Amino acid sequence: MSSNPSPLNSSRFEGCTLTGALSVLTEVRDAVCIVHGPAGCTHHNFSLLHATLLSNDRLEAPRLLSTRLTENDIIFGGEDALEKTIARALSVSPAPTSVFVLSTCIVETIGDDTAAVCAKPRGVPVVAVPTAGFLGGVFETGVRNALSSVATLASPAAEVTLTANLVGEKNLEYGVDENAAEIARLLARLGIGINLRFVRRIGTGDVERLGAAAVNILREPALRPVGEDLKRRFKTPCIESFPTGLAGTCRFLEEAGRICGVDPSEAVEEERAYQAEMLSRFADIAGSRVCFRPPHPALNPDPVAEAVCAECIEALDLTIAPPDGVVIPLPYPAPVGTAGLRRMLHRWRVLIRGKGRG
Amino acid sequence: MMKQIALYGKGGIGKSTTAANLSAALAGEGLDILQIGCDPKHDSTRMLMHGTWIPTVLDLIRERGDATITVDDVVYRGFGGVRCVEAGGPEPGIGCAGRGIIATFQLLERLDALKGDVIVYDVLGDVVCGGFAMPMREGYAQEIYLVTSGELMSVYAANNIAKAIARLSRRVRSKCTLGGVICNAKNIDGERDLVEEFAHRINSRLIAYVPRDRGVQVAELNRQTVVEYAPESNQAAVYRDLGRTICENRTTSIPTPLEMDELESFALEFVQV
């Protein structure tokens, strides 16, 4: 979870498809992404992705190329510029194992046939990702279309293993790896391993494993169309969200067990005990008076996060007492699993103790 | 003072024929004329150029870039010394012709080519996007002439252009106004009355009635304007009158375009007559 009200956490239901798609595609680490449009569209996204990687202690530069369209390309069509940029992408060192091509609003306006240019055989997969800038939708649409496009690189698996894919991790948020580790911990209780983080720090060749998982675990319900797409392609059932809350985390174990044919009752019992033990460490803040405020002036409170907080309020016997209670920002997005709750409660404790001292 | 006019109307209605003959007639009065074809099919000035297809501005930009283009590359002298320019366009089905018109105007301005006694802009059938409204924007054509026959679709297109003029004229610095309506006849019964009434209803007036004349086709088969091919003909006299009317025209207006249902009932009135 992240309680950091960073602009990076602003609504995924606004913005540009390009940013959403690139947040996925640049995690295919041996690929090159081409943004077919003016240089500025690449510049903005490069800056954002680079800054985000740095703030997550990753000293990597996203591998982006721009077709650098100018006014004359807009008048006469930009397909030649795209051809040339694909050739440039294939000649960079180290050579890409795959190339993803994203279209901007202007090339969609002038009618460039991006998909047709990409479809020419080149020995390396060149995948046209439906984006079309703002014309193609919003940030979230870009994420979904990018995931479905990467999935086209995989064929159905010969054998399904007792594993899960993590689908659509929010690569721009803080705590991505902590959240993935929490899912891995929970699934390990059921004897289910992680097959593929789709898409997070993988290579093009890894995508081939996509169909081998017994279950796809979507990061959030907004990715449902991707879950359906993957089900169509690989017959893999899906769980629609990472788990949130105490009861929600146990329900997640039950659902994963049911889908994978594993009896979850023992795992659920273990997790309940683990949660009780975790809550007992916060006994010192029991009975405190708190009140919540929205995570950020520009964000509406997330009902899932509110439900999770209500659950913890009850479990720890806290009192909601505006306006004099300790002000606690609602988390955004909701914390993942029991570990996410633990991190959230640590933050509550810091705020409550700080108020006591102050 | 330089006069900048634009001819707009439905495709195939005879805009280019009207524009070329108008330019030829005005040149005959000793005026320095620049005619700019703003249609990707680039045939506006062809009769003035005796059938030659001159290189288009956009072809040159596409082939060479715009840095090295000179006035002599894009401006060609035709009949009567009329200076001819064709904007051209991208290949069909690709790119953005409207933006091409804008780029052409910017280049012509940079080359200081937009000068003379009269500039005649001949613009494609309808205002399909902002690019084709470019000649109507501030600094370019200040008087728009709608070319129409009595056919409903042609009147409909003229009405659409009137809408664009009305919209553009709301801009603070707009100088774009409607100079009048030219009826390029198709020999339909009551055609003149219909177009005259249409002009009146959109707050304008019929400034010329150009009858259908076989002489125009004969002249064009000989790759000339009728003003050049048959200067003594009645038709050439009609174009010379049109030229004088436009030169002397001091009455322009902001049009009040008809709504679709008004236009339909208007057409019905004339059918019943």
Spell out the key features of this protein.
heterodimer, A: 358 residues, alpha/beta, Rossmann fold, 4-stranded parallel β-sheet, 13 helices, 11 strands, globular, disordered N terminus, B: 273 residues, 8-stranded mixed β-sheet, 8 strands, 40% helix, 16% strand
Mean of the pLDDT scores of chain A? 93
Structural class of chain B: alpha/beta
Instruction: Trace the largest sheet of chain A across and list its strands.
Output: 2-1-3-4
CATH superfamily of the largest domain in chain A: Nitrogenase molybdenum iron protein domain
Q: Describe it for me?
A:
- The complex is a heterodimer of chains A (358) and B (273).
- Chain A has 358 residues and is of the alpha/beta class.
- Helix content of chain A is 44%, strand content 13%.
- Chain A has 13 helices and eleven strands.
- Chain B is α/β, with parallel strands linked by helices and 273 residues long.
- Chain B has one domain (3-272): Rossmann fold (3-Layer(aba) Sandwich), CATH 3.40.50.300.
- In chain B, helix 1 (15-28) crosses helix 9 (234-248).
- The longest helix of chain B has 17 residues, at 152-168.
- The model of chain B has no long low-confidence stretch (mean pLDDT 92).
- The chains are: A alpha/beta (358), B alpha/beta (273).
- The A-B interface holds A 71-72, 74-77, 79, 109-112 and B 58, 61-62, 65-66, 90-91, 93-97, 99-100, 103.
What would you say about this model in short?
Chain A is α/β, with parallel strands linked by helices and 358 residues long. Chain A has helices at 17-25, 39-55, 71-76, 79-91, 105-110, 114-118, 139-151, 176-188, 224-234, 246-260, 265-280, 303-315, 337-357; strands at 31-36, 64-66, 98-103, 126-129, 163-167, 193-198, 215-218, 238-239, 289-293, 319-320, 326-329. In chain A, helix 1 (17-25) packs parallel to helix 7 (139-151), helix 8 crosses helix 13 (337-357) and helix 10 packs antiparallel against helix 11.
